[in-house]
Amino acid sequence: MPAVRSVLVVGAGAAGCATATLLAEAGVSVDLIDIKPDVSALGSGITLQGNALRVLRQLGVWGRVTERGYAFDTLGLRAPDPDGTLIVELTDVRTGGDDLPATVGMYRPDLAGILVDRATGAGAKVRFGTTCTAMTQDDTGVDVTFADGSSGRYDLVVGADGIRSRTRRQLGIDLETRSTGMGIWRVFAPRPASVTRTDLYYGGPCYIAGYCPTGEDSVYAYLVEDAQDRSRLSPEESLDVMRSLAAAYHGPWDEIRESMTDPARVNHTLFETHLLDAPWHRGRVVLIGDAAHTCPPTLAQGAAQALEDAAVLAELLLAHDAVGDELWTAFTDRRLPRSTEVVDASVQLGQWLLDREEGDVPALMARIAHLLAEPA
């Protein structure tokens, strides 16, 4: 018998949907809730590296991901000069294995929809527009009251509700989420025919200017600047700011910039980070994904680490016959060291740019690639 027969998963992002899918497919009764009114996801695009693709294949959605996304195996570095000169094209590491591409770019809401559909198809009962208002637990389960007035009792609650996790606050965990000193502009746009991989430009008015193909007809492009409050800008002002910053970058950026006409396709967020030390659980409530660890997107590992959390947690819950110290020790031993290395490396890459320091980027990237190539 698995350690749990009924589970509540809070948060229908990558971590929550993956957990719900894997448990429901194994016969566990799963309720999956999200405070948002629907499956829509903030953002323009998402970069999924091989270790994320490995879990997506395990979930049974690899076919749909390949249909909607854009796969590639190289990374380009370009100069911030009048021609956007290509300096070098690097072969990327296939961290998910030789039978998976190194990277897939996707429109983020497409991925969100695929994952929710898969969880529903596996048997999870999905409810949007509600959240937990109270949790009371004892040695055998957790009693939960929901915002709509309903209630339920579960063997386990999984808090996969993101960086501002309400579940984490309900557990009384005080975790500092801090800005790393950078902010990022993103836009979703038509894909120029010349964009067939991620290219990065270092220098100019931004720390990084880059783009990633997200489908045959789409790309998301981004500009990384110093952290500042952009929240008071109107959508039209935000578009003007991003177009102005992008004016310094050329090559494919010229075509991307000309297509940037819709303010609704532009968004700005800050780079933030936190890392919860062990344990990630309190009794029969456990935190995963961004609720436990979040990192700036310098390594494009946020969703990948969330998916790995889900896969490991589900594996252990199905392999153990009780929720207890043995299970939680195994979970911590497998997830905390790996997540810590990824978070620290992601922050370090950004800090080198902020300090204008020439750190040993190749060595750091090689170390993380070697780590991620190993199963979680």
Automatic annotation (TrEMBL):
PROSITE patterns cross-referenced by the UniProt entry: PROKAR_LIPOPROTEIN (PS51257)
Taking every annotated instance into account, which residue ranges of this chain make up the domain FAD-binding? 6-346
A Gene Ontology molecular function term for this protein is: monooxygenase activity
The UniProt keywords, alphabetically, are: Monooxygenase, Oxidoreductase
Q: Which InterPro entries match?
A: FAD-bd (IPR002938), FAD-dep_Monooxygenase_BioMet (IPR050493), FAD/NAD-bd_sf (IPR036188)
- Name the chain's protein: 2-polyprenyl-6-methoxyphenol hydroxylase
What organism is listed for this UniProt entry? Answer: Nocardioides eburneiflavus
